[in-house]
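Hey, can you fold this one?
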Amino acid sequence: MSENAERRAALQRERAAALAERLDHWLQLGGDERALDVGTGAGAFAFAIAPRVREVVAVELDESLAARARADAPPNVEVIVADGENLPFERASFDVAGTFRTLHHTQRPELLVAELTRVTRPGGTILVVDQIAPADPLVGLDLTRFEHARDPSTTRILADADLRGLFDSNGLTLLREEVLDEPRDLDAYLDLAGCEGEERALARNLAKSGYDAVVGWFLLSR
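Sure. Predicted structure:
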């Protein structure tokens, strides 16, 4: 199992209680829902929602991360290796679907949002959480360059307008949103991704004044 998977799992355990409490304020759940977590990583969102629903299917493309999540998963969480841009589920298979800090790691975020929409039942709920780029495209490009140097799986950090365009194009209704500033210790953040050598030097050069991430939470109705 990769060191990155172990680091992600350790960070997840540290943040688990806070994430679970936050979900209680964002999702109205009856306990009998079937939930989907796309891009589960080490399982953070899936594990947080699991005690609050009947079952969870957690999807992860990286086999090492999926193995780490599977090793820690509670009984009602099934972890599968699959592509979020081409989900192996029937239309309207889930009551609740979410993707947690995944869109900026996928090549085609518009396909991932379309797939989330397709597999969620009409009237169901979709939760999208992801980092947000500044509105200035040049500043946004520098942010993507920094995140890619830190973690090569980063594709593009989307701006708020880009995310809203994805939601609108899939006929989703935005019910609630919140934008959070997340100050991060730069060295610890680079260590989390195992960023070393030339990439670390580049990342530090791109974030000379430190680094605060901006993260958006979007609650949507299908």
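Helices lie at 3-26, 44-49, 63-72, 109-119, 137-150, 160-169, 186-192, 197-206. Let me know if you want another pass with a different chain boundary.
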